[in-house]
Amino acid sequence: MRVQLSAALAAALLVLAGCGGGDDETPGPAQAADGLWIGSTGSNRTVTGLVFADGSYYVMYSSPGYPNVLGGAVMGQGSMTDAAFTSASALHLNLEGLGVLRASVAATVAKKQSFDGTINSTGIPPVTFTSTYNTDYERQATGAALVGSYAGLLGTSKGKLSATWSVRDSGLSSSLVALVAANGCTAQGTALPRGGANVYNLTLSFGPAPCPLAGQTVNGVAYLRATDKQLFVAAPNADGSDAALLSGTKQ
Fold first, then answer.
1. For a tag site, which of 100, 115, 143, 144 has the least CB within 10 Å?
2. Where would one find the signal peptide in this protein (predicted)?
C-alpha cells in the first residue's frame, strides 16, 4: 500500500492536566486532562491526542485535509497548575520535511470537555488548536480487538515508508507485533492493553539497516479507532531524539 503525504507546514497538539491544591503552586499531576482528545488546527489538520494522568502525552496530527494521513506528532511530559497546562520540552516529529523539532506547549483544559492552546516549535510559527474529549477513551482495550493485519505508513525523522504489520495473540496478556516496511526493514515487539483506557502500551524493536531506526527500540502507545479500525502509534526512542509513527487501517 502506498501512502503519500503533501509537504506543508505542520504543528498541532494536545496535552494534559490536573488540579493544583490549596496554596501549593507546585505543578500537580495531569488527571484533569486524562483522556482521548479529538480536534483540529486552523490549517485544517485533524488532531488525535492521548493524555495520561501521569502527565505523559502523545498527540498525532494529520496532513491538511487528509485526516487519515499522518503529518507528525508531538509527545512528551507536562504538568498542570489549576487549569493551566505547560510542557517546556517536547519532541515534535514532523513528517512533511521539517524532521525533528523541539517544542513547548501552553494550554487550558476543562476536564472531559475541552483542551485548547498553542504549540511553539523551533523554526516555525506558533499553531493554535482546539479539541474536545472523546468517550471512546473509556472503552477498555483488549488484545482480541487489536489482533489482525494492517497496512499504512511508518514515519521517522528519515522520512516515510509504506508498511504492513500484523498483530497476533501471544497466549499471554500481551500481543505480538511484526512489521515489514517497503525498504525491507523489519521490526518486532509487543502491545499490552493499558488499564482503564482504550489504549495499548507498545514496544517495537527495529532490525539492522536499512531500518531508519536500526537497532533501536521505541516505547509508546497505540490507539485503535473503533469507527473505522484506523490504528495510530507514536513511540519515541530511548533518548527522545527520534520516534516511530504509524498510521494504518485494519484489513
1. 144
2. 1-17
